[in-house]
From TrEMBL:
Function, as annotated: Destroys radicals which are normally produced within the cells and which are toxic to biological systems.
Species of provenance: Coemansia pectinata
Name of the molecule in the record: Peroxidase
Enzyme Commission number(s) from the entry: 1.11.1.-
The organism's taxonomic lineage, starting at the top: Eukaryota, Fungi, Fungi incertae sedis, Zoopagomycota, Kickxellomycotina
Signal peptide feature range: none
Length: 361
């Protein structure tokens, strides 16, 4: 390759706009600088440039300059793209909408993936330990064994599989962002409060998985629930607000061993967890499965032993009563506590914006 040829791309890369301009002007202007450019782009020997300029030579030069301009434009565009962090290349409103489109399926459970998306977001985040600053949604380690196989996470592969096509569609979104955003969509699209959310989590590999036992054991009581949630940095009021998510969804014998929904509208976000807990009479379920409670009148609804602790523990009960009589306060408190949960342990980029997504019509 001649030295002339090597100079050209550099010239063009530095000044793509002016190179293009020169190219456009070239046929009319036969200034020496225009000639230099034309020559620079030619693959011909220099002596050919000493011949009188022909129409053919001029066209070749123009095409060359145009090509270099295009090349330079492409170079600058791709360089800029490379330097943009992956999380900034995603249109999160579009992801929100696509997740919302995945919710409904009349053949799945009660007709919506919303509840299991909320549970996925919570289990991806609720491994956080504020002392060691490990766990949380930042690494999305819930998708790796052994964490994916911890007993508490049984059944969440269903939610991850449902979301996977969106990870393929939006290659630049992290799993941590996708799973937590799915929780936001689940809450909002099922009628719950707006939950503010930020992007920018980066994924980690299996060696960052948290040890088993960081999520609550449904068979235990108030002390255990406090141990688990205090470790994450929540207080009693926040814990009482978070567990109100049990208005959504149901227990599955083939996942947790427990059975049934908490109320009659498991695909609508309400304060019914609290009203049912306080107003219904709960008796132990007569069966071979783990200890759980069912409502005395119908036996159709359930409470976990850990849920019952919120009724019997006096400090938790204050908030249960508050949320049972005041849905707005519950919605406000849940929104704040859930947003906090999804951000535990995440070091967001300084310029990560906060989103408040509009629900779909
Ligand atoms: C005391 C703490 C908690 C305990 C012991 C607990 C336990 C459980 C259990 C055993 C299930 C049934 C899983 C299955 O069989 O499919 C479940 C489901 C669920 N949990 Fe919790 N949970 C707790 C707190 C929370 C929190 C803080 C949230 C969210 C903010 C939440 C959201 C959900 C949802 C939405 C479901 C339904 C999932 C579905 O329908 O597939 N839970 N929980």
């Amino acid at each position: 390759m001649s030295s002339t040829l090597r100079t050209v791309p550099r010239l063009a890369l530095r000044a793509p706009a002016s190179a293009k301009l020169s190219a456009l002007r070239l046929p009319a202007a036969s200034t020496s600088s225009a000639r230099t450019l034309a020559r620079a782009y030619s693959s011909q020997q220099q002596r050919q440039y000493q011949l009188p300029r022909t129409r053919k030579a001029g066209t070749g030069g123009i095409l060359g300059v145009l090509a270099a301009g295009a090349l330079a434009g492409w170079y600058f565009y791709s360089k800029q793209q490379d330097e943009t962090p992956a999380w900034k290349k995603v249109n999160y409103q579009n992801v929100y909408k696509d997740i919302a489109d995945l919710l409904e399926d009349e053949n799945y459970d009660d007709g919506s993936y919303g509840p299991v998306f909320v549970r996925l977001a919570w289990h991806a985040s609720g491994t956080y330990d504020k002392k060691t600053r490990t766990g949380g949604s930042a690494g999305a380690t819930i998708r790796h064994a052994p964490e994916s196989e911890h007993g508490a996470n049984a059944g969440l592969d269903v939610a991850r599989r449902r979301l996977e096509p969106l990870k393929q569609k939006y290659r630049n979104i992290s799993y941590g962002d996708l799973y937590t955003l799915a929780g936001v969509v689940g809450v909002q699209e099922l009628g719950g409060p707006t939950v503010q959310w930020r992007p920018g989590r980066s994924d980690k590999q299996a060696d960052a998985c948290t040890p088993d036992g960081r999520l609550p054991d449904a068979a235990q009581g108030a002390d255990h629930v406090r141990d688990i949630f205090y470790r994450m940095g929540f207080d009693d009021r926040e814990i009482a607000a978070l567990v109100g998510a049990h208005a959504l969804g149901r227990c599955h014998t083939y996942r947790s061993g427990f059975d049934g929904p908490w109320n009659a509208s498991p695909t609508v976000f309400t304060n019914f967890f609290y009203t049912e807990l306080l107003e219904n009479t709960w008796v132990p379920k007569k069966w071979d499965g783990p200890k759980q409670f069912v409502d005395k009148p119908t036996g159709a609804f359930m409470m976990l032993p850990a849920d019952m602790a919120f009724k019997t523990d006096p400090r938790f009960r204050t908030y249960i009563e508050l949320y049972a009589r005041d849905q707005d306060t519950f919605f406000n408190d849940f929104s704040a506590a859930f947003a906090k949960l999804l951000e535990l342990g995440v070091k967001f980029p300084e310029d990560a914006p906060t989103y408040r997504f509009k629900t779909l019509d």
